[in-house]
């Protein structure tokens, strides 16, 4: 498995995928994007953000029931697992920061991507669909696999993300209310 690009040296600064740095205290719990000095907008995700940020409640429940994690610290499928999949797929585009020893920041893990939050949302959905297809392919049920693949041909990730973000109103003060 690829290693997250965690900068050495200053524990209070995080080197972003673009090469700029940000103070870990500048990342707050409500932040979903960071307007960088490089001119780009980077998605920000923290371990305290629920996976429902990206996926509907029912799907998160299905994933939690279906996926056995190997982590004693995080036995239930959650946001860190989603970002782990993204990090594995895009190791140069994601930086991770372990702040579990820093009581001043309010989060234990933070990830910043070279993508903006909408593109990251699309990537998460695409990777979950791949994960689901992989799981269905192991069911030894050609009919179920064929039905799933047919549904996915008609599934538009970009449209799903657009509708889901509008429904969840990710720009609202409390999008999970």
Helix content: 25-40%
Overall SS class: alpha+beta
Integer-rounded radius of gyration: 17 Å
Q: What is the molecular shape? A: globular
The fraction of residues assigned to DSSP E strands is 5-15%
The average pLDDT is: 86
| Count of individual domains | 1
Runs in which pLDDT lies below 50 for 5 or more consecutive residues are 1-9
| Total number of helices | 5
Strand arrangement in the largest pleated sheet:
3-4-6-5
Tell me the number of strands: 6
* Biggest sheet features: 4 strands, antiparallel
What does the model show?
- By secondary structure, this protein is of the alpha+beta class.
- It has one domain (14-172).
- Helix content is 38%, strand content 14%.
- It contains five helices and six strands, in the order ββββααββααα.
- It has helices spanning 57-66, 79-89, 117-137, 142-154, 157-168, and strands at 13-15, 21-23, 33-35, 41-46, 94-98, 109-113.
- The protein has a four-stranded antiparallel sheet with strand order 3-4-6-5, with helices on one face.
- Helix 2 (79-89) crosses helix 3 and helix 3 runs antiparallel to helix 4 (142-154).
- The N and C termini lie far apart (36 Å).
- The model is unreliable at 1-9 (pLDDT under 50).
- Pfam families: DUF5815.
- InterPro entries: DUF5815.
């Amino acid at each position: 498995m690829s290693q997250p690009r965690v900068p050495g040296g200053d524990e209070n600064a995080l080197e972003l995928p673009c090469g700029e740095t940000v103070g870990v205290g500048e990342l707050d719990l409500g932040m979903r994007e960071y307007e960088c000095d490089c001119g780009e907008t980077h998605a920000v995700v923290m371990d305290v953000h629920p996976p429902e940020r990206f996926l509907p409640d029912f799907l998160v429940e299905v994933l939690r029931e279906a996926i056995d994690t190997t982590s004693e610290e995080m036995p239930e499928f959650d946001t860190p697992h989603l970002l782990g999949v993204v990090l594995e797929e895009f190791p140069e585009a994601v930086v991770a920061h372990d702040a579990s020893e820093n009581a001043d920041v309010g989060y234990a893990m933070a990830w910043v991507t070279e993508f903006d939050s909408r593109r990251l949302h699309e990537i998460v959905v695409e990777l979950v669909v791949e994960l689901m297809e992989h799981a269905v392919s192991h069911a030894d049920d050609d009919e179920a696999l064929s039905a799933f693949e047919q549904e996915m041909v008609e599934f538009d990730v970009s449209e799903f993300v657009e509708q889901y973000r509008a429904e969840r109103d990710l720009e609202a003060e409390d999008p999970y209310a």
